[in-house]
Amino acid sequence: MFKQSVFIKSAADKSGWIEDEIPEILFVGRSNVGKSSFINSLANNKKLAKVANTPGKTRLLNFFDINNSLFRLVDAPGYGYAKIAKDAKMRFAEMMEEYFDERENLKAIVMLVDLRHKPTNDDQEMYHFLKSSNKRVLIIGTKLDKLKRNEIIRNEKLIKETLNFNPNHTFIKVSNENKVGLEESFEVLIRLIKE
Ligand code: GDP
After folding, report:
1. Predicted complex: ipTM over 0.90
2. Between the CA of residue 50 and those of 7, 34, 58, 91, what are the distances in Å?
3. Residue 53 has what pLDDT?
4. 169: CATH
5. Of the candidates 67, 121, 76, which has an alpha carbon nearest to the alpha carbon of residue 99?
6. Domains contained in the chain, number
7. Can you give the residue range of the structural domain that contains 99?
8. Which of 27, 30, 31, 32 to mutate to test the pocket of ligand 1 (most atoms within 8 A of CB)?
9. C-beta separation of 11 from 56 below 8 A
10. What span, in angstroms and rounded, lies between the C-alpha atoms of 3 and 65?
11. Number of CB atoms found within 10 A of residue 28's CB
12. Which residues are in the EngB-type G domain (predicted)?
């Protein structure tokens, strides 16, 4: 897990990006999927990413320095929040596209999905987009502790089928509640930026 983690800044567009060569890993996921909790678990810091922000409210990329600039973690706003106005959705899409298309520091993407549910249309669109970008991708299935034993294999299969999962991508099941899968996730992150 992270030895050091510190919030650096937020940015609405490329004018706010940091100019250097430090690799960045982008974290995306539906609002409420457990993204903030996962980041906080990796950092062992309950306050690093704000848990229980009004879902979908922040429309900024948040940049964190991890392990003294080993890499930067870039936390994207949660998507798929029904009450967000259309123009805010557009701004989100534009911000993400600009970052995906133009950010050379971007080395890998972590996408979180809720292990309890079939991926939504928004999830499917996001994953489709990630596949077409040819970046390295890690899928994190959250809330493992909420599943009964016999649901685990079934739900993973449904999620992979629904997403049309690329077997070259890694899929890790985690529980932020029970701190399961965190060390493995961190090891994969390190591998993704070093590949
Ligand atoms: P975000 O909107 O994706 O940042 O989601 P949050 O991290 O704020 O989590 C949303 C809700 O799910 C909160 O109530 C968390 O406590 C809960 N949660 C997150 N991860 C887990 C998990 O692994 N297990 C369980 N049981 N609850 C979780």
Report:
1. yes
2. 11, 11, 11, 21
3. 55
4. 3.40.50.300
5. 76
6. 1
7. 5-194
8. 32
9. no
10. 11
11. 22
12. 21-195
